[in-house]
Amino acid sequence: MKSYKPVTPGRRGMTVVSYRDSLTSHKSTPLKSLTKGKRSTGGRNHAGRTTNFYQGGGHKRTYRQIDFVYNKKDIQARVESVEYDPFRTGFIALAVYADGERRYVVAPKSLVAGSTFIVSETARALVGNRLPLGKIPVGTFIYNVEIKPGAGARIARSAGNYAEVVAHDGGYTQVRLPSTEVRKILSTSWASIGAVSNEEHHLVNIGKAGRSRWMGLRPKNRGTARNAVDHPHGGGEGRSGRGHRRARTMQGRPVGKGQKSRRPKKYSNVFIVTRRKPGIRMQNRKV
Q1: β strands within the chain, DSSP E
Q2: Which of 154, 38, 34 is nearest to 103 (CA)?
Q3: What is the pLDDT of residues 183-198, one digit of tens each?
Q4: pTM of this structure
Q5: Which residues of 235-255 are buried (b: 16+ CB within 10 A; e: fewer)?
Q6: DSSP label of 137
Q7: 3-state secondary structure at position 32
Q8: CA distance linking residue 137 with residue 187, whole number of Å
Q9: What does R_g of the chain's alpha carbons equal in angstroms?
Q10: What is the per-residue pLDDT across 85-120, written as a single tens digit (0 to 9) for each?
Q11: 160: closest CA among 110, 217, 226?
């Protein structure tokens, strides 16, 4: 982490990730053939109504097309550079395969320029390699985990995250997710070995409101400070309690304080072996 001298109020306590130590210095711009433009929605849907609040503004960004499917199998790839991606918290790696094709992939920890990896059913369980869950030893850390075979990576893709192989049983692999939930996934689904890079991301102190606005984050005000028509916690004379036993979202759904918000009849309930443990126990599970 890089910290600053408190020459201004915004600099006091402000920290940033030291990219110089993690990224390939000579690579300053992304590969143009693997990028495209992406419009900012400002949290609004196709009808122009705000559906995701507290979003808007921010710096213009170029979208990097990331390979989450990994459909080039049994061809070794070499990492040309490790780069920053403004659309995700982890770093990305530009990989060139033996046949000359280049793709962006999510970079794991300890992956540097010159490292190699392969996507194969016969691959060794080394950092960066990708293979089916059924062939990964118990206790191995994995990332970019598929939920359905061939559907692409869905689990453990953000900075510092990883899942852990717990057991193999009856065609399924039990995986401990970053949320501490243990879930059964088909053993024919694929996963990459290691943990996602930029594990210091959760230590960043933004420092000032302006930096949040550069990131496209708008101010968030408390529900108790609003009118009753705008939030279930709003209204009342002076500083009032929320008036409900459980905290609620703007839409009236339960939220926070370890409350269960999952639908009781959700289709994937049959795949959950152990429910997640919210609170301090989950927060302490860091890479």
Answers
A1: 2-3, 15-16, 35-37, 62-64, 77-83, 92-97, 102-106, 116-117, 130-132, 141-143, 145-146, 153-155, 163-169, 172-176, 182-186, 190-193, 272-274
A2: 34
A3: 999 999 999 999 999 9
A4: 0.90
A5: eeeeeeebeeeeebeeeeeee
A6: P
A7: helix
A8: 12
A9: 22
A10: 999 999 999 999 999 999 999 999 999 999 999 999
A11: 110
Pairing of strands 77-83, 92-97: antiparallel
Identify whether the C-beta of residue 200 lies closer than 8 Å to the C-beta of residue 1.
yes
Which pair of structure tokens corresponds to residue 114?
Answer: 């010159």
Please count the CA atoms within 13 angstroms of the CA of 267 that sit on its side-chain side: 0
Determine the CATH number of domain 18-40+60-201+265-283: 2.30.30.30
| Residue 283 CB coordination number (10 Å) | 9
Distance CA 61, CA 39 (A): 9
Residue 186: beta bridge partners? Answer: 172
The size of the chain, in residues, is: 287
Q: What is the dihedral of CA 237, 50, 247, 273, to 10 degrees?
A: 180
The full set of domain ranges for the chain reads 18-40+60-201+265-283
Q: Which residues contact 262 (CB under 8 A, 6 or more apart)?
A: 269
